[in-house]
Amino acid sequence: MSTPAAPQPAASAAPDPARFITAGRAHLGIELGSTRIKAALVDDAGTVLASGSHAWENQLEDGSWTYALADVEEGLRSCVADLARDVQDRHGAPLEQIASLGVSAMMHGYLAFDADGELLTPFRTWRNTYTGEAAALLSKTLGQNIPLRWSVAHLLHAVLGGEEHVARIAHVTTLAGYVHERLTGRRVLGVGDASGMFPIGPSGDAFDPELLTRFDALDAVRDLPWQIADVLPEILVAGQDAGTLTAAGAALLDPSGTLRPGAITAPPEGDAGTGMVATNAIAPRTGNVSAGTSAFAMVVLERPLSGPRVEIDMVTTPAGDPVAMIHTNNCAGDLDAWLGLFASFAERTGSALAADELYAALFAAGSEGEADAGGILSYNYISGEHQTHVESGRPLLVREQGARFTLENFMRAQLYGAFGALAVGMQVLLVDEGVELETMFAHGGIFRTEGVAQQVLADAIDTPVAVGASAGEGGAWGMALLAAHTAQVAARAEAGAPAPTLAAFLAEQVFAGAEQSVRSPAPAGVAGYARWLEGYRAGLPVERLAGESLS
């Protein structure tokens, strides 16, 4: 896939990037995503100075999707080493000192530790959907939808299952919180990521105290040696000082000793929060879609919803404002697998294509398909999908006997399928709940082929979709912006000057004048996607049966 240009900030980029970096003024964001760990180094206005990455994959072990913590450490070191090489190659400078640092990671999941800091059970990621009984009990008890992947659902699942480790729990956290503690020694979490652990209260900067009390009153947990508030991390909001990079933390990132400690750190966040920041979608009536292995749409609310909805998660922006979240476990994973198959075929014919050429050619074919994909349905369910009540996913391609099975229609069905479960959830939010959304901002690798997936999404949700020049930068860039904002807040406080809010920082210093393209819904595409989605819904029993029958 082609790489987009870096964002065009309002303020000028560092006049001499090498000098800026060697002076230790750059800001680093690291995000541990589902398939890649990425790093972005930026200047004060968010211009990308260098980047790095490391590929990794989760493993299905003993019925749970997991990543080994040793792989977390190895991935961080590899990613930062790749970043340092890019700094050297681009600017002829070593990466020795940074002004600020922030870590984000895939939200939710379950990391439980004892009093000695030992992991009590392998990391259980957001992809695990076996917490249905616990989530249902919590939703009833707390009076709001508690998704299967939330940390508290995993915690109660372990309690209800009588797991031995439960009595020894000293604290639970997310992947971002774990890495942040390794880097700084502080057990804190940004409010956006924390909102995927346990519901946030009306103040927007703390867990809901009434709901904490309700949890502790549950029969299943009443006799445990801890209370829920004692095992959850401290919450911080965007701009607050989350500690400094310690010598041990710097050594974890860079065992060579080149990177020095001392950088101020931003509150660790989840990938949903960094997606909002990376698209400047943190004001009411704005939203963003982040599309990768999973997908989620975040819509900042201007009024409360009618009540709890199983399709909608209530979370927050990194500043603590309420957000309706439509999350799907599956997005581009199956699409990438099919494109890998086409790449292998091209190579066998002696016509190997570079990745960007392959994606461009096949996405272009999809844009030429029939509006309803010609009778072809694609279910991209590598894992279970809660939005459509599929417990165990099996990727499935289904077509009518008379379907027009062309490359163009096949690729359009693949693109439609990538957003299928998301479209189901968005109908609940936009149609049933009547939430007003002026523009949906999109980012993630699927949007890096210009215009194609963007138009599909606009038609799927019948809303204009904007993609900025930074669309492919993703969460690591968003986390770097949060780190830059934290550094600026600290500097202003030291000087006795008023600090900018996150919204003001993004609007005035990063996104003012930024390039973006907007695709409006096309009437034919909207109607075609609606027909396709009707067939998609009708075929869901087949997808469920596939999960039950194919082990």
From TrEMBL:
Residues 288-486 form the Carbohydrate kinase FGGY C-terminal domain. GO terms for molecular function: D-xylulokinase activity. The keyword Plastid does not apply. Keywords: Carbohydrate metabolism, Kinase, Transferase, Xylose metabolism. InterPro entries: ATPase_NBD, FGGY_C, FGGY_Carb_Kinase, FGGY_N. Its EC number is 2.7.1.17. It comes from the Bacteria. Residues 28-251 form the Carbohydrate kinase FGGY N-terminal domain. Signal peptide: none annotated. PANTHER family: SUGAR KINASE, XYLULOSE KINASE. Belongs to the FGGY kinase family. This is Xylulokinase. It comes from Brachybacterium hainanense. The lineage of its organism: Bacteria, Bacillati, Actinomycetota, Actinomycetes, Micrococcales.
